[in-house]
Amino acid sequence: MRAMKDSGIEWIGEIPYTWGTSRMKYIGTYMNGFAFKPEQWGPEGKRIIRIQDLTKSAEKSNYFSGTIDPKYNVTAGDILVSWAATLDAFIWDKEDGWLNQHIFKATPIETQICREYFFWLIKEAMQNMNNDNKHGIMMQHVTLDVFNNFAVPLPPATEQQRIADCLDRKCAEIDAVIERTKATIEEYKKLKQSITTEAVTKGIRGNRLMKDSGIEWIGEIPAEWDVV
Q: Which of 137-141, 153-157, 168-172, 220-224 has the lowest mean pLDDT?
């Protein structure tokens, strides 16, 4: 067992004795997205990255063909933090796009923290900001002041990469199980529907004399059945 100490921060509790703590503003920089107006949306240009695009719930994407400050450009590998409605961190893995409002582009201060651990730390921090700091009535969101001053654990540099590598591996394995489970659930839903259809339209006994119902969606029915 390793020696532990009290972090002095309620949501963290005890941490290894060699670890420290910090605040989000000391380990990274965070830039909010551009406030696009609906009249600036279009079918062509570069994608506007919204929260829906991060959570994969967008039915369609919006695009912008004009010119804005290149600091709002997002490329694959950038860490994006949704701070409104859905509080979470994501790694962008698609084509270049423009950063929309309600999303921070998070850049680690590499003298303080390694990029991979920085990502996982933000994901965990956002879950706890969600529990403790909800603002607004219709939409949950985290203010920049709350975000910047949120206290987080900070392991030694030598340990940060090991933690990130372990999380990458284990979470990828869990994601694979989730995807397989989703596929299995869909198959069971189809089986349930098939059993229901068979019982409702054909009955539950074995081989029996059948006749054409004259109705396309039903097909054949037991010979002694009627259609109403």
A: 137-141
CB 49 within 8 A of CB 98: yes
Q: Convert the pLDDT of each residue in 145-182 to its tens digit.
A: 989 999 999 999 989 999 999 999 999 999 999 999 99
Bridge partners (DSSP) listed for residue 220: 212
d(CA 137, CA 70): 34
Instruction: Give one DSSP letter per residue of the chain, joined into a string.
Output: ---EEE-S-TTT-EEETT-EEEEHHHHEEEEE-B---GGG-BSSSEEEE-HHHHHT--SS-EEE-S---GGGEE-TT-EEEEEESEEEEEE--SS-EEEBTTEEEEEE-TTT--HHHHHHHHHHHHHHHHHH--B-SSS-B--HHHHHT-EEEE--HHHHHHHHHHHHHHHHHHHHHHHHHHHHHHHHHHHHHHHHHHHHHH-SSSS--EEE-S-TTT-EEETT----
Query: Which tokens belong to 164?
Result: 């990130």
pLDDT in tens, 19-42: 999 999 999 999 999 999 999 999
**Cα separation of 71 and 31, whole Å?**
9
